[in-house]
Amino acid sequence: MKPAPQTPSPADADARKAIAPVICYPLDTLPLPVMDLYKKAREALEKVEEVLVQPRDANTFNVPAGHFFRIISMDGPQVGDLNLWAKDDLTERFYSGKTRALHGTHLGVGDRMWSSFPYLRPMATITHDTLDWYGFDEFGGSVHDVIGTRCDPYTGHLLSGDDYHFCCHSNLIRALAAETGLSSDQAEPHVHDVLNVFMCTGFTKDTHQYFMKASPVRPGDFLEFFAEIDLLGALSACPGGDCSSEHSSDTVACYPLKVEILRPEKGTLDGWIPPGPSSYCRSHGL
Questions:
Q1: Which residues of the chain have pLDDT under 50?
Q2: What is the Cβ-side half-sphere exposure of residue 95, based on CA atoms within 13 angstroms?
């Protein structure tokens, strides 16, 4: 939030502000997902596993490359915080900042979740979204953002002085530790900025502060992904429920979420090849 200006405006202030913006990363040369192939493959999917995520908790799941997975609303409006890693290498993880720079503040069908440096490859591609009707509302809000980081005990303690252990950051740490056998101290550095699934967010028009509002998600809604590489995922059912009032709370209504792992029919992905890591030489000018 910008403070009140203390520096007088220069004579050409209006002219400077009137300069038109340019997109930082034009996507004309960005490799595109093969959406027609994914559409064909998703016509015949077999559920091979499902994982429940209890309210104010998190759970992990594994998705082989070439499979689909869905995050599904069950009993009531609930948002979830999603982390992704390469299954056998926790150092390759979802890079929300670069994903935001490429695709915008909120993700939709055809957008991809990109991995961290030095890999920078698509980890998952969004293939279906039952909330795509929402678009952007009059407040500038939309769903599935990559601008919020995750609710965490450190910011909570900073602002309130209290310790709260069931925020999404802590939930994800516990889930990753249980999956890998790491201690909480070892697991914590691997927990990273999230895709806020189903969460409705934006920036206020006056102060441009990050806001949240009641999620439009309802039981039966889902967000579906195609796994481009072998994935380890972790999903937290946020203690804020639908995030209409607060996000680290033991009092708001919270509901479970479900993750389904889906296998396409053999042959429907013929021609598809998992993406390799970035081919940049990594000399960095040295």
A1: none
A2: 17
Secondary structure element (H or E) that encloses residue 143, with its range: strand 142-145
Q: Whose structure tokens read 């993406």? A: 275
Helix (H, G, I), strand (E, B) or coil at 271: coil
Give the residue carrying structure tokens 């970035």.
278
Q: Would you state the pLDDT for residue 3?
A: 80
Neighbours of 176 (CB within 10 A): 23
pLDDT of residue 247: 80
Q: Which two tokens stand for residue 229?
A: 């590489």
Q: Do residues 212 and 199 make contact, with C-beta atoms less than 8 angstroms apart?
A: yes
Q: Residues of 3-33 as b/e, b for ≥16 C-beta within 10 angstroms? A: eeeeeeeeeeeeeeeeeeeeeeeeeeeeeeb
CB–CB of 245/151 below 8 Å? no
Distance CA 278, CA 264 (A): 27
Between strands 222-227 and 122-129, the pairing is antiparallel
- Residue ranges per domain, the chain? 51-264
Whether 92 and 248 have beta carbons less than 8 Å apart is answered as: no
Tokens of 113: 């979740």
SS3 category, 109: coil
pTM value > 0.70: yes
